[in-house]
Amino acid sequence: MANVVVIGAGLGGLPAAYELRHLLPSEHTVTLVSEQSEFTFIPGLIQVAFNLKPLAQVQLGLAQLAHRHHLNWVPGKVTALDPAHQRLTVEGQETIAYDYLLIATGASLAWDWIPGTGPHGGYTHSVCTPDHALEARQAWLAFLENPGPIVVGAAPGAGCFGPAYEFALIADQELRRRGLRHQAPITYVTPEPYAGHLGVSGVKNARELTAELMQKRGIEVIDNATIAAVEPQAVTLADGRQLPFDYAMILPAFQGAQFIRAVPGLGDEKGFIPILPTQRHPQFANIYAAGVSVKLAQPDVTSVPIGLPKSGQMAEAMATAAAHNIAVDLKAINANPQVPTLEALCFA
Ligand SMILES: Cc1cc2nc3c(=O)[nH]c(=O)nc-3n(C[C@H](O)[C@H](O)[C@H](O)COP(=O)(O)OP(=O)(O)OC[C@H]3O[C@@H](n4cnc5c(N)ncnc54)[C@H](O)[C@@H]3O)c2cc1C
Fold first, then answer.
1. Whose CA is nearest to atom 38 of ligand 1?
2. Which of 25, 185, 248, 289 has CB 3.0 to 4.6 Å from 103, enough for a Cys bridge?
3. Catalytic site residue from 6, 160, 319, 332
4. Can you list the residues of the chain whose pLDDT is less than 50?
């Protein structure tokens, strides 16, 4: 009888837990640990920030889902992992022993790399978490009362650019709808080598289409940009340029969760977990990883560092392959190990 523990109940962890429960006989336990009591469809948070959707419409209660799917649900944040003794610590609770571990903890947001970024202690908004989206919405509604310049973009080292484009384009649309666009110039500032690179070079005609779209919408693009710091109403670039704003939304660089960074050999220098093609860790044979927490190297050399985007579909493909391969390891199914295809299909 094994206890298979999944950490993180996002777009990777939740499907992984479902798949494990589906594949493993009932003598095995599937434990789902998450610091959030809701599953959040993160792509929907942009619409929450623009007050186009209530937060509740992009969330599902995990306690009910876990009950319905016969999962052992443990709410709480994992603060420590001891691979040698196959145990993990959940904040304020006892340790949990595991036979297999699947880490799907997504991104930890690297606000401290750029002074002044982020909604907590900084001056820029974010749509990466539910509480950030709610704060961004409150500020957006106040901004509409007295619009001014908007800066949208991504910090150096970021790998997730699609949401920044989506944010800039929805801002444009919402301001036009209200007849306010002439009061709010929009600047898109990015470490990408060109608009439409999206962290993956050579995607068909993305470059031409994006340039055309941004021009048509009157959004100024600054590419190859390194945001060096943000003050209360201005973004400062490394070349000294200042971009004044009344509203800014900057996506940060991502890193792995703190508990991953604390275990020697588990993650790389940023806390992303190296994996074999089967999603298994190369050294820790009973640890698998899926989604944004996984190390995927950016093959392009760019003048400003960027990461590789990890889409929701990739997270789910990795997670279901990892679940399948754990079931193979446990001899619950008689099948060959699976290797996920990581074609970057976008969910939203
Ligand atoms: C604003 C935005 C828009 C996006 N839009 C799209 C889109 O349109 N299409 C698309 O395909 N992709 C999109 N993405 C990317 C997509 O959201 C991710 O690929 C996907 O969420 C990754 O899934 P994951 O399971 O790795 O991480 P997540 O979905 O982030 O889930 C990780 C979970 O782990 C939990 N967790 C973290 N640390 C701990 C801990 N120590 N203990 C316990 N729990 C922990 C977190 O709270 C979270 O619930 C978007 C991303 C953002 C930020």
1. 105
2. 289
3. 160
4. 347
